[in-house]
Amino acid sequence: PQEAQLLGALMLVARSGNVAVAQLLLTHSPGLATIPDEKDNLAIHKAAQYGHDKVLNLLLQYEADARAANTYENTPLMFATRFGHSSTTAILLRNGADKNRGDDKGWTPLMRAAANGHTKVVVELLKGSGDALDIDAQDKADTTALMAACKSGQLDTASLLLDHSADALLPDSKGLTALHHSASAGHDLVVKALLQ
């Protein structure tokens, strides 16, 4: 089979989580783990997106880059955090993933996890390997992870960020704080937590 067919098969296997087929493909063509698709995704991006830790670990053994960015500057860690895969997040952090790197809009893995209420993922980012987490990082619109959690009503995640000294007074590019975002979205419990 041609390389494009093999790569397509590996992408599908990374998405479905079939480690036996992934092993067959990588044994046949070891370099597949480092070849991007048309959007610069590697198979590790797909394994991270779907939380398939066994396939992810196998891809890492075949030199897949845990820090690789696709066309939109999304890394495997960004996919794992967005979709709530805490064990995948931990594996990527142990393998050098950058927890503070932003995508093309400046969204970090923490912002993705916070916006979606993935509190276990936030815990992994807070305690995980590598550089210290920039809890108050801001995207291109000056949004923080705390603002993202508050805007989407993620009380547990917002509370965890506040417990770890996230700055509730930082304004975004429109001058709005976490309190403004939670109030405008009608999240009374989040507002209450911010007022304490």
Topology:
Elements lengths: L2 H14 L2 H10 L14 H8 L2 H9 L14 H7 L3 H9 L14 H7 L3 H9 L17 H7 L3 H9 L14 H7 L3 H8 L1
The helix tally amounts to 12
The N- to C-terminal Cα distance equals 62 Å
Tell me roughly what share of residues is in helical segments: 40-55%
What is the approximate shape?
elongated
Order of helices and strands: HHHHHHHHHHHH
DSSP strand (E) fraction? under 5%
Radius of gyration in whole Å, from Cα?
18 Å
Biggest beta sheet summary: none
**Mean pLDDT, as a whole number?**
96
| Secondary-structure content class | mainly alpha
Low-confidence stretches: none
Number of strand elements: 0
Would you give an account of this structure?
With 196 residues, the protein is mainly alpha-helical. It has 12 helices and no strands. The longest helix is centred in the N-terminal third of the chain and has 14 residues, at 3-16. It starts with a helix and ends with a helix. The model has no long low-confidence stretch (mean pLDDT 96).
